[in-house]
Amino acid sequence: MNLPPKVTDRAFARLSEIGAGAQGKALRVAVEGGGCSGFQYDIKLDEPADDDLVLEASGERVVIDEISLPFLANATIDFTEELIGARFTIENPNASSSCGCGTSFSM
């Protein structure tokens, strides 16, 4: 059974810190063809569309278009801070492999 993606509290907290919801924006997570492994994530602040899946907490939203949704079933969207930088990350159980940068994967 495919479940919708989950968003961690840490990811919603980061969206709140940058004021995404206050600007009327949401974090859009999409899957596109390309990258070194076949598919790549496109993560950006954007306005929600009518047919998006909206995941919401504390006034912040993460949106996923219906074409990307099957690729992100059961995935976890998080925010991490490391020595090399801070970024939104996706732990995707559907990916059979991924590249070192974490933005490209294959299925």
Protein architecture, described:
The chain has 1 helix and 9 strands. The chain has a 6-stranded mixed β-sheet with strand order 4-5-2-3-9-8, covered by helices on one side. It has a 3-stranded mixed β-sheet with strand order 1-6-7. Helix content is 8%, strand content 46%. It has one domain: HesB-like domain (Hypothetical Protein Aq_1857, Chain: A).
Notable characteristics:
mainly beta; Hypothetical Protein Aq_1857, Chain: A; 1 helix
SSE layout and pairing:
Layout: E1 6-7, H1 9-17, E2 26-34, E3 38-46, E4 53-57, E5 60-64, E6 76-82, E7 85-91, E8 97-98, E9 104-106
CATH superfamily: HesB-like domain
- Percent range of helical residues: under 10%
Tell me the Rg in angstroms. Answer: 13 Å
> What is the succession of H and E elements?
EHEEEEEEEE
Global shape:
globular
Mean pLDDT, all residues: 88
Please, how many domains?
Answer: 1
CATH class: Mainly Beta
Structural class: mainly beta
Give, in spatial order, the strands making up the sheet with the most strands: 4-5-2-3-9-8
In angstroms, what separates the terminal alpha carbons? Answer: 17 Å
Main beta sheet, described? 6 strands, mixed
What's the tally of helices?
1
Q: Do you know the CATH architecture?
A: Sandwich
Question: Would you kindly provide a brief summary of this structure?
Answer:
The protein is mainly beta. Helices cover 8% and strands 46% of the residues.
